[in-house]
Amino acid sequence: MNFTxxxxxxxxxxxxxxxxxxxxxxxxxxxxINYLNPREFSDNKHNKVDDSAAGGGAxxxxxxxxxxxxxxxxxxxxxxxHIVFLTPVAKPFVQNDAKRLSKKSHIAFVSxxxxxxxxxxxxEFADEVFSIGDYILTxxxxxxxxxxxxxxxxxxxxxGNCESLDIESFETPLLEAPSxxxxxxxxxxxxxxxxxxxxxxxxxxxxxxxxxxxxKFFRPEQLLKHRTQSH
Length: 231
Ligand code: SAM
What we know:
The protein is of the alpha/beta class. It folds into two domains: 2-152, SPOUT methyltransferase, trefoil knot domain (Alpha/beta knot, 3-Layer(aba) Sandwich), CATH 3.40.1280.10; 167-229, tRNA(m1g37)methyltransferase, domain 2 (Trp Operon Repressor, Chain A). Helix content is 37%, strand content 18%. The protein has a five-stranded parallel sheet, with helices on both faces. The protein has a two-stranded antiparallel sheet with strand order 3-4. Helix 4 crosses helix 6 and helix 8 packs across helix 9. The two termini are 39 Å apart. 26% of the residues are buried. Bound molecules: S-adenosylmethionine. S-adenosylmethionine binds next to strand 5. This is tRNA (guanine-N(1)-)-methyltransferase.
């Protein structure tokens, strides 16, 4: 699967892929990461990519020309590229989107900077527009990385043990049960002995009860959804 980061700040993004699971996925050619800098498409003699906002107001806006030309070029190279804009003015990105988007062959994430992107670019090129939460970041790079990471975990072969995907939080309305490792007694803090007795049906019941407790505490609306679905 191909990802293209359309960004003025490639360096911010690059470091994320230098270690761990996604680095291995790149080495195995399961995912490929590319970069496209709109500044390289600017026809301004100083390579400017921003301008003051039409109608006034504070801050600069990314002007249409460099992004129009960069994205046209990208589409010419791959007509199947799925272009995603990151902006707080959008639907929230959720796990179901991550799973759905993991089936695409090529996703381009377009990162805004300053006060955002001239709306005409979004109107012309967006296949989808996402926000990663109700807060304002300085740029779309972190948001693009969040999406790329969540999508990549769902691409076949990226995770060593794909079973772990089925039991994660958001696969059902319930949040995942707490995880424990070894030893059973760590400085006087014990893992429930039920986990160690090998009775899988009892372990499942215990995990379900713990999942419900966690969900009730952190996401009560999700517990309601779970109860409605299971009746
Ligand atoms: N003026 C914009 C507003 O109030 O909606 C905020 C612009 S923000 C400072 C600059 C860029 O960061 C945006 O164009 C977008 O790409 C990115 N960004 C900021 N917050 C984001 C969020 N919650 N989700 C996705 N992208 C975000």
